[in-house]
Design goal:
Elements: H1 5-24, H2 34-52, H3 70-109, H4 111-123, H5 125-131, H6 137-153, H7 161-178, H8 186-195, H9 202-227, H10 229-239, H11 249-277, H12 280-293, H13 295-303, H14 309-334, H15 338-346, H16 349-358, H17 360-368, H18 374-380, E1 391-394, H19 401-404, E2 413-414, E3 421-422, E4 430-431, H20 433-442, E5 446-452, H21 460-471, E6 475-479, E7 484-489, H22 490-497
Parallel strand pairs: 1-2, 1-5
Antiparallel strand pairs: 3-4, 5-7, 6-7
């Protein structure tokens, strides 16, 4: 059934408007979360390096994306309008991702399933979190969605459709560069492009799959080779090594299931409906999209790591929502009159609203969690002033760097993950690890030491720093606010204030 351009656009624009309002309500003007601080601070340091030199702390070895892409964009947005501008930028990216999902699902399943899919994804709690956070998730989702849309557009047998085929590897490369974990979804995009030409025969589908796989792998391989070993370390650290917050399989599964579990169930229901309707050509597409929705959960389970699950699940939700929209909106497609289609289409609101409400509480709780660092920032801020030659030992500094002192040079701060202390009297001889920490504290190299005030038995670094600060003359405990023990070297601050 055909609708005019205006009539087709109204429901989708209404969904995007509601998505913008609901996501915008999660954007607060408080302090940045740990991930937000890390990306924006890194961007500022990279820009400073470009203008003034001095190097940067090898962000490519541990950031989950190319440092010169999203962090720099975020830093520019922050310079323009602060943290709110960076978060609003993510909202724009998520609106673009929803629009691309609508275009993709409409070509796959029709108009009303596409509308339903857009509503499910746009109002999903994990999507709202990605759209309200200053992280690369929203941009990566939009780019990976663009890759899927190009794969769908390239399904035509001849003519301009083949031009879209050339864009698929480029869009995949862009998404992977922004966020390395998106590489997990590359096979889903490639398989989608191959499935849509299966009507021309299995041989044609295999040719398309091989062509997309080879071109994408070649492009990614060239980019990685040109980038260097530092980027290989960052990619391996992101995809292959479990994070420090390793958890059980049950905890990881529950964390992921809360975000996209309901969407996965509805997507699986779409398979049954397609089978009952006899639409066998849609079954393979729905199965692929449903499995893609489970990719993030499977990866998190493999690594026993729930850290960053919401970011993975937002992208998995994009694919699963396309399948879920089929079962929600298919009845309206079967109506024989425009009035009947409109009435049945209005019922799309019910399941979409139910899914949105089911994940709303998690979204609000996650976005509010960053406020827990306010006490830490308030306690540290007065001590981070003074000459550029002053050095600070601050555990997990990048998690709070943006709110503490964005203009503080990275050379002034030592974090727990990397110690590089030049031994006095031995030029060019550097001490690392616990030996370096002990020597630096004993020689009063740090004007300030900040570590968790009540570290667990596993946090050997914090325990060592507290013990040395207590035993070394000149250091005094200044504060324990925000769960951090803050030691200052009295003579340094006496010279500054005296």
């Amino acid at each position: 059934m055909r609708y005019g351009p205006v009539a087709r656009g109204v429901p989708v624009l209404a969904i995007l408007a509601v998505q913008a309002v609901l996501t915008g309500s999660l954007i607060h003007l408080g302090i940045a979360s740990g991930q937000e601080s890390q990306f924006i601070y890194a961007g500022h340091q990279i820009i400073r390096e470009l203008w003034h030199g001095g190097g940067s702390p090898y962000y490519e070895t541990y950031l989950p994306g190319v440092p010169s892409i999203y962090p720099v964009i975020a830093a520019v947005a922050d310079f323009t309008g602060g943290l709110a501008a960076v978060r609003l930028m993510s909202l724009v990216f998520m609106l673009a991702a929803s629009w691309v999902l609508y275009l993709t699902a409409r070509r796959l399943f029709g108009y009303w399933p596409a509308v339903a899919a857009t509503g499910v994804f746009g109002l999903l709690g994990v999507s709202r979190v990605a759209g309200a956070s200053a992280t690369p998730d929203a941009l990566a989702i939009a780019l990976m969605g663009l890759a899927a849309y190009c794969a769908v557009r390239a399904a035509g047998p001849t003519g301009p459709a083949h031009r879209w085929l050339l864009a698929v590897p480029a869009a995949i490369l862009a998404a992977n560069a922004v966020s390395y974990p998106t590489v997990l979804f590359d096979p889903a995009v490639i398989c989608l492009g191959a499935l849509l030409v299966s009507y021309q025969g299995r041989r044609r589908a295999w040719q398309r799959a091989i062509a997309l796989t080879c071109s994408t792998a070649t492009l990614l391989g060239i980019a990685t080779a040109l980038a260097g070993t530092g980027y290989l370390m960052g990619i391996g650290r992101t995809l292959l090594l479990p994070g420090v917050r390793a958890t059980s399989e049950t905890a990881v599964a529950l964390a992921s299931w809360r975000w996209v579990g309901l969407v996965i169930v509805v997507a699986a229901l779409s398979l049954l409906i397609a089978l009952l309707l006899g639409e066998h050509h849609n079954i393979s597409r729905l199965l692929l999209l449903t499995l893609a929705g489970l990719i993030a959960m499977g990866n998190a389970l493999l690594l026993h790591n729930s850290q960053g699950v919401s970011g993975y699940d937002a992208l998995g939700g994009w694919f699963a929502a396309a399948a879920a929209g089929y079962s929600i909106g298919r009845l309206a497609e079967l109506a024989r009159s425009r009035v009947g289609a409109a009435l049945l289409g209005s019922l799309v609101v019910v399941p979409v609203a139910a899914i949105a409400l089911a994940t709303a509480s998690q979204a609000t709780a996650l976005c509010d969690a960053s406020n827990s660092a306010i006490a830490t920032v308030t306690a540290l801020q007065p001590y981070l002033t003074g000459p550029q030659s002053r050095h600070y030992l601050i555990d997990s500094y990048e998690d709070i760097a943006y709110d503490l002192h964005p203009s503080l040079s990275w050379q002034q701060v030592t974090d727990s993950f990397y110690i590089n202390y030049e031994q006095p009297g031995h030029r060019g001889r550097y001490l690392h690890g616990t030996v370096g920490v002990a020597a630096a504290i004993e020689n009063h190299w740090f004007a300030l030491i900040s570590v968790p005030s009540d570290p667990g038995s596993q946090d050997s670094f914090a325990l060592l720093a507290i013990r040395l600060a207590d035993q070394t003359p000149g250091y005094q405990l200044a504060s324990t606010s925000g769960g951090r023990a803050i030691y200052v070297y009295g003579p340094d601050y006496a010279r500054t204030t005296g």
